[in-house]
Design goal:
Blueprint lengths: L6 E5 L4 H12 L3 E5 L9 H15 L4 E4 L18 H26 L5 E6 L14 H19 L4 E8 L6 H14 L3 H9 L10 H12 L9 E5 L7
Parallel strand pairs: 1-2, 1-3, 3-4, 4-5, 5-6
Length: 242
């Protein structure tokens, strides 16, 4: 069991990605403190701080902090940049980066005294490639990957690893369904054609599953990945060549 007795806090545990990671961590023996938006507002510093202090009070430490929060895509997708209000453009950038910064910073304060811990998040292919009608979503993911590098530069000397996962096009997620709607309107694709279009860009000509992504999250959170920090793992199945 790769995560036996690890204390893991997973933000966004009620979503597709967060739920899959929660289940995978549980199978590998982690002691879980999953939190969805109804339990912890990760944009509220005091709420995150109170939650982490309650975890420390019960478990005495935090080994893994995983930020998998999502922003409703209906509010940020489908509008051309030339018609997008600046507030609508900036909203995902502010929300995604604020959540990741707060959960990482506050977890790190508890990890530094023990000189051990793993801070994780999840991004998307759009952090590295251009795509129409995604507003500020792509810049938000790129900012999270930059923050992963900067956090690692400061925290790695204290024994804390900071890593991200960059999956692409998992059909079970709400994100891929929400992204389909504006594309369908502009191209006339149906759902199956949309999935075929995405799969054709990968090397194995198929899309990743949530379980595959979660299995990699387990490995990256485990001591087996002790040399990995300051990086985002490319899980795009060849769509993006690093």
């Amino acid at each position: 069991m790769l995560l036996k007795d690890k204390i893991a806090v997973i933000y966004g545990a009620g979503g597709g990605i967060g739920g899959a990671v929660t289940r995978a961590f549980a199978r590998e023996g982690a002691r879980l403190y999953p939190a969805d938006h109804e339990q912890v507002d990760t944009l509220d510093e005091q709420a995150v701080d109170r939650h982490l202090k309650s975890v420390i009070a019960e478990a005495s430490r935090i080994d893994v902090s995983f930020d998998a929060i999502g922003v409703p895509n209906s509010e940020i997708l489908g509008v051309p940049l030339t018609e997008l209000a600046v507030e609508q453009f900036g909203m995902p950038i502010t929300a995604y980066t604020r959540s990741y910064f707060l959960t990482a910073r506050l977890a790190a304060r508890h990890m530094i005294p023990r000189k051990s811990g793993v801070i994780m998040t999840v991004t998307a292919l759009l952090s590295r490639t251009g795509s129409p009608l995604v507003g500020g979503y792509g810049p938000a993911q790129a900012a999270k990957e930059a923050l992963t590098r900067n956090l690692s530069a400061e925290l790695a000397p204290h024994g804390i690893r900071v890593v991200g996962l960059r999956p692409q096009g998992m059909p079970e997620t709400r994100t891929i369904r929400d992204a389909f709607e504006p594309r369908a309107k502009s191209s006339g694709m149906n759902w199956d054609q949309w999935l075929e279009f995405l799969a054709a860009r990968t090397h194995p000509r198929r899309l990743m599953t949530l379980e595959e992504m979660a299995n990699m999250a387990v490995f990256m959170a485990s001591d087996k990945a002790s040399s990995m920090t300051g990086t985002t793992v490319n899980l795009t199945m060849g769509t993006l060549d690093d």
